[in-house]
Inverse folding.
């Protein structure tokens, strides 16, 4: 009877240890480095498991990429780069002024480049 009780306690402790090592520790330590890039611009960021595009840190990564693309675009005008900047601005950008994403006056690349620090300045709440 005493042996069964000791065996049950040992099995319980082993099961608890296995649970900790297989479920809890990987969740705590599993931050992967993800990369988003376009042409010469590249931005690495840490993320737990798979990337959620609605998450704040993904939006911040997109903004860093857009700022890099703005620098590249001012040096060499390229249609693909301007399209990518506008795509990021329309999906993740902070409006330059109220309703500027819908306003045709602020829908062009020149306005986004002029106000790039305002359009791509997003700080998530921790």
């Amino acid at each position: 009877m005493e042996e069964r009780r000791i065996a049950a306690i040992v099995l319980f402790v082993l099961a608890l240890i296995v649970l900790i090592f297989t479920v809890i520790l990987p969740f705590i330590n599993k931050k992967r480095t993800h990369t988003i890039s376009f042409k010469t611009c590249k931005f690495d960021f840490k993320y737990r498991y798979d990337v959620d595009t609605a998450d704040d840190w993904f939006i911040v990564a997109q903004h860093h990429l857009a700022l890099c693309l703005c620098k590249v675009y001012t040096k060499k005008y390229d249609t693909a780069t301007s399209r990518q900047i506008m795509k990021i601005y329309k999906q993740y950008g902070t409006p330059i002024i109220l309703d500027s994403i819908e306003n045709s006056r602020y829908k062009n690349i020149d306005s986004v480049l002029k106000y790039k620090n305002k359009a791509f300045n997003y700080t998530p709440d921790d």
Notes: The helical segments are 2-29, 56-75, 79-92, 109-114, 116-119. The chain has a mean pLDDT of 79. Strands lie at 31-38, 41-48.
